[in-house]
Amino acid sequence: MPANHYNRGHVQKNLDSKTWKLSEQGAYDYAVRLFGAAAIESLPKLERGANKGKPKGFLHWRKATAAGYYRECQGPCKSGGLIDAWIGEHFGTLRDGAMRGMWCGRIQALAGSRAVLTAEYREREEAQARETAEGYERLKAKYGWED
Q: Measured between alpha carbons, how far is 125 from 115 in angstroms, rounded to an integer?
C-alpha cells in the first residue's frame, strides 16, 4: 500500500473503515470499479495544484473484520468482505453526507452497500432509467405535453 494512503481507519463492531483521496490513482480506480466511470466523472474537479482536473472528494469504505451478519449490508459477509462505500467531500464524511452525482442513470448520493456496488446492478438500473425516460417522452408526444 502506498505511504500516502489514508489508512487512519477505525474499527467499530467488526468493521474496518478506510478513506482514500480520489485524486490518487489507486482510489480513482477502486471508485470506478465500485460506482462506475460515469459516477466518478460527474463529480466536481480540482481546479488548481498538482492534481488539477482530478475529481474532488474522498472514497470511504468499510470492510468486515470477522465473518457474520451485518445490518449495514443486510446479510452475511465473509471476513475482509466489502460492507459499503461512499464518496464524501471531506475526510471523515459520514455515509449520510455522501456527495451527489450521476449514478445508475439518475442523480443521487454516491453511497451504497455491497449489493448495489456491482456492474450488473448499474446496468440494470441504467436500463430501467432509460425505459422510464422513453415512456415519459412517448406520453409527452401522445398528449402534447411540454416541459
A: 13
**Which grid cell sits at 89?**
467531500
In a domain, 1, yes or no: no
Angstrom distances, CA of residue 35 to CA of 21, 48, 126: 15, 25, 12
User: Would 3 be classed as within a structural domain?
Assistant: no
CA distances (Å), origin 135, targets 16, 67, 103, 106? 43, 44, 20, 16
Which cell goes with 83?
460492507
Contact between 38 and 103 under an 8 Å Cβ cutoff? The reply is yes
How many domains are there within the chain? 1
Range of the domain at 116: 11-143
- pLDDT tens column, 84-129: 999 999 998 998 999 999 888 788 899 988 888 888 888 888 889 8
Q: CA-CA distance, 83 to 69, in Å (whole number)?
A: 10
Distances (CA, A) of 72 to 14, 16, 27, 56, 95: 12, 13, 22, 26, 11
pTM exceeds 0.85 for this model: no
Question: Which residues, 6 or more positions from 15, have their beta carbon under 8 angstroms from its beta carbon?
Answer: 62, 63, 64, 65, 70, 72, 83
| Calpha distance 49→35 (Å, rounded) | 26
